[in-house]
Specification:
The structure is a single chain. The protein has 137 residues and is an all-beta fold. The protein has a single domain, classed as Jelly Rolls, CATH 2.60.120. 0% of the residues lie in helices and 42% in strands. The chain is built from no helices and 13 strands. The strands form four sheets. A six-stranded antiparallel sheet has the order 1-3-4-12-7-10, with no helix packed on it. It is globular, with a radius of gyration of 14 Å. The structure holds manganese (II) ion (MN). Manganese (II) ion binds next to strand 11.
Length: 137
């Protein structure tokens, strides 16, 4: 099921468009928790249809809580997982992966970067068209 248009049921603010060569397509970020006291950061990330991040890994791991639209998650060497609101993705430290929208729908998730004292996200190459085999149908 796809909507094509903006997510009308978005829960958290859309924030500002990201300008980074680690993303393909239009992506927005609203930082929600930034206080290092908590050992994690939480951001609301919104992907336009077809948008996704490059392959990357998190030294301290990451948890994604899906809040809207239709998305994709893939770990290196594994099949793509299709995501909907209510899904939870647990990403172990240093596991190479990418996440983003399907070609035909918006996608929105909370990104919780855990154990942030372990280090910053490490960006790798963009997701190729062949790897972006990401569709619900
Ligand atoms: Mn990630």
């Amino acid at each position: 099921m796809t909507s094509g248009g903006p997510i009308e049921s978005a829960i958290f603010p859309k924030g500002v468009e990201i300008s980074s060569n680690s993303f393909t397509g239009k992506v927005w970020l609203q930082r929600l928790v930034t206080d290092a006291t908590f050992g994690c950061t939480i951001g609301n990330v919104t992907f336009a249809p077809g948008a996704r991040n490059s392959w990357h890994k998190h030294p301290g791991g990451q948890v994604l809580l899906i809040t809207g639209g239709t998305g994709c998650y893939q770990e290196r060497g594994k099949t793509v997982r299709i995501l909907h609101a209510g899904d939870v993705v647990e990403i172990q430290p240093d596991v190479e992966h990418w996440h983003g929208a399907t070609p035909d729908d918006w996608f929105c998730h909370l990104a919780i970067s855990t154990n942030i004292t372990q280090g910053e996200v490490q960006w790798l190459e963009p997701v190729s068209g062949a790897d972006y085999g990401c569709s619900e149908s």
